[in-house]
Design brief:
TIM Barrel; alpha/beta; eight-stranded parallel β-sheet; Cytosine deaminase; Metal-dep_hydrolase_composite; hydrolase activity, acting on carbon-nitrogen (but not peptide) bonds, in cyclic amidines; Amidohydro_3; Metallo-hydrolase_Enzymes; 21% strand
């Protein structure tokens, strides 16, 4: 019988990334106290988790998901290919979807993310063409309501340049949080970008724009940043993908990042999807297709995050719905350190999403992942499925794995060895 979620009051003997062990008292949805292992008293009637052998981390947040598309690869059976072929396959399939079918996949995808430790998700959802353009929006709104006690879900209305303003505004009126789009794919990228920004201003919401998701195409990020320079601080703005940044020469890159930093635009890398979609036209010396993560981080003043983006749909046929997979790819393909990579999928992601600080700090939100590991290297490399997931002070997911592996044969005695 599933007894989750349940309120937890004390985490005992947890290992921190610096190697120390500690107890953590949770006061509702907040970290109330931290002390050396076995030093924090157990409250009468409280619920204690023994985390001996577990590494305690800030729970991951995913700032760029597509719950409406997730887990559709098998149903669509699309050809493998680049961004354009993925869009064409998706648009054809989208005409056949019902709200109920989207809900079923999206719910499953969100719970897979929760099981792996992600307690906050920002999902783009297509404003569809044709009849019932808000099918996807209604579906993700339903999933958000169903899971509201288990995880935080934000929704971005993802609108192509051919989607009418009225449909985007209707999505916001239903409860969507942000305006999104892909201006770099429009015939006139600047015009579409400005249309989306004006619409967001009109409705008083933030934006999360798919930006320059190509190796050689339009460069819109600098204009985006300049256009939101005078927006109020509380109106969130972020740019996803930003693949073109990784192709710019240093002087040109520095000029764009000057604009980004001055306007506090968050940058969201999506390594697994961009590594899959980009570079098909380059059979030799295939580019990595990532944003300029190192240059962004070296600035020190730009909010930087990473998301899984697409999971098992026409835009990416694989993916484990695990932030540790994203972190691993940032290390391998983006040459980030382990600390930088995990920060990008946890504290950095929360900063880009403008969520309160979380993790093992007094006063921080109790959004925590405990994973069986000795240190961060072990956690990212091996990604043990043994995990406890805590959202708002509640244990919302728990996985336990057992292994049975045959023992090796006893070593042959030296006296029995023959020289050949």
């Amino acid at each position: 019988m599933n007894a989750l979620p349940r309120r937890v009051t004390l985490l005992q003997n947890a290992t921190l990334p610096d190697g120390s062990t500690c107890d953590v008292r949770l006061d509702g949805d907040t970290v109330g106290a931290i002390g050396p292992a076995h030093s924090v008293p157990v409250e009468a009637g409280g619920d204690t988790l023994d985390l001996t052998g577990f590494l305690l981390l800030t729970a991951p947040a995913d700032p760029h998901a597509h719950l409406d598309k997730a887990l559709s690869w098998d149903a669509i059976d699309p050809p493998m290919g680049d961004l354009v072929s993925a869009i064409l396959a998706w648009r054809a399939y989208a005409q056949t979807m019902t709200t109920e079918s989207i809900v079923e996949r999206a719910r499953k995808a969100a719970l897979l993310m929760l099981r792996q430790g992600t307690t906050a998700v920002r999902s783009h959802v297509d404003v569809l063409l044709g009849d019932e353009p808000l099918r996807g929006v209604r579906a993700i709104l339903q999933v958000r309501e169903e899971l509201r006690d288990l995880m935080h879900i934000e929704i971005v209305a993802l609108a192509g340049s051919d989607v009418p303003d009225a449909d985007i505004e209707a999505a916001i009126d239903l409860g969507v949080d942000l305006v999104g789009g892909s201006p770099h794919l429009a015939i006139d990228p600047s015009a579409d970008l400005q249309r989306l920004l004006r619409l967001a201003e009109r409705k008083g919401v933030g934006v999360d724009i798919h930006t320059d998701e190509n190796l050689t195409g339009a460069l819109t990020l600098a204009e985006f940043a300049q256009s939101v320079r005078d927006w109020p601080t509380e109106r969130n703005r972020s740019a996803g993908h930003c693949v073109r940044l990784g192709t710019l020469q240093q002087d040109d890159l520095a000029a764009v990042l000057d604009e980004v930093e001055a306007s506090d635009v968050g940058i969201i890398a999506n390594p697994i999807t961009n590594l899959y979609l980009q570079g098909w036209e380059h059979p030799v010396s295939t580019p990595r297709g990532l944003t300029a993560a190192r240059a962004v981080l070296d600035r020190g003043g730009i909010r930087f995050a990473a998301g899984a983006d697409n999971v098992r749909d026409p835009f990416n046929p694989v993916g484990r719905s695990d932030a540790l997979e994203t972190a691993s790819l940032l290390v391998i393909a983006g040459h980030l350190t382990l600390d930088e990579a995990y920060t990008a999928v946890s504290d950095g992601a929360r900063a880009v999403m403008a969520l309160p600080s979380a993790g093992v700090a007094v006063g921080a939100r109790a959004e925590l992942l405990a994973i069986r590991a000795t240190n961060l290297s072990d956690a990212v490399a091996n990604a043990s499925a043994d995990r406890y997931v805590i959202h708002a002070g509640n244990l919302v997911a728990q996985s336990t794995v057992t292994y049975d592996v045959a023992l090796p044969s006893p070593a042959r005695q030296p006296s029995l060895l023959q020289t050949r």
